[in-house]
Amino acid sequence: MADTSALPCIVWFRDDLRLSDHPALHAASRTGRPVICLYVLDEASTALRGPDARPLGGAARWWLAQSLRAMQQSLASKGSSLVLRKGPAATVIAELARDTQANAVFWNEIAQAPHQAVAEQVAVALEAIGVSSQSLPGDLLAAPARIRNKDGRGLRVYTPFWRRAQALGDPPQPLPAPKVLRPVADLASATLESWGLEPARADWAGGLRDNWTPGEVAGQERLKTFLERGVAGYASERDRPDREGTSRLSPHLRFGEVSPRQVWHAARFATAERPALAGDIDKFLGEVGWREFCRHLLFDVPDLAKSNLQPAFNAFPWKRDDQALRAWQRGQTGYPIVDAGMRELWRTGIMHNRVRMVAASFLVKHLLIDWREGERWFWDTLVDADPASNPANWQWVAGSGADAAPYFRVFNPILQGEKFDPDGAYVRRWVPELARLPANLIHQPWSATPLKLASAGVELGRTYPVPIIDHREGRERALKAYASIRAA
Q: Which of 83, 319, 341, 373 has the least CB density, counted as fewest CB within 10 Å?
């Protein structure tokens, strides 16, 4: 019988760009065989071109390029390398297995319809050439099958969902990274530059580079620093865009540089070490729970980014207003807290969560522009654009989704700014043309006297726009529109 101990195995990386707590890599390394670490840029598989899938947006593509570079460095420190290939995953992986005589392929599950379909295609292609495959859970705290209602469906309300998830107990302990990996030499690999993930001409990514360090090492350090120095006061500070009160872990979770169970266990350890912070840490874990809730929701509803979860919203009287949409996208609505958020997004690839809610509410309620327009914009401009959280959050704001905000909740952008950015520091940073206005006027510059506007160097309609819609008018119009579908 031929000795198979020297035959390599393949680990197929996807949205799990880390070496620690990577079940597939852990399983492959324990075989003692040479390990081929592979990333496939798959934009051609039928499942990934179907109605429920879409290519990454520009900001996420930039992050992916940096994360893959970080992976290359991490693997080099283990004596290995990252093989980059482009094409349909089933074809690419089967060809690599055949060319290298690999007899096993490992990957982590992603509980999303297009990714599951591609994984099934890979498994079929490997079986056809006699290569075994194994997928392992690595993306969630709990598999969707473990949190079902009595009819076998996923839960649509967050609080009972999170209660059920917590009742399952702690997820498994994170797995250590391999100490060393046996490499396979002389494997052809594409270059990241050839993939064109980063801007080639107009370099709009300067703000991203200034604000982010993608990769597992940076993600783990951010988690550690947050739990050691940033989590105190999280329950109250997380709503303040003028302060550093959030973890900023979302893009690291989005690309799997940090796993949810690493976050869970690190947070529980921090609670044990400092019991006084239990309330803040529980609130933080609740945000991880919301990510989990959105992913379970996408598992059940693959077209979440395109279809209203609540069918009644199919009759909602959305308005087509390209001029207003452009003003919102560019941070030129005349409402400072909204404009600050949209400019922060464009510059840094992120927006504070409280401001995301205000900006989204303004688009869908004040302007009556379809939530899908906003979701598409965020998909292209967010570094943490998540296929589950992004549409789920937009539908939550619109009122068309799971656990949706009440239709009569129309965020007042003036009051939201005054409450959560009371000194105007956030607005001054991102809307510098208003920086000289006093705090009591900065969230409603139109209420300032001509003398105060002039002394602050503000000329409404020229240096800063007048509001594109009156708040009261927008709110009343929104309530009428929502009432119309409720009556129907």
A: 319
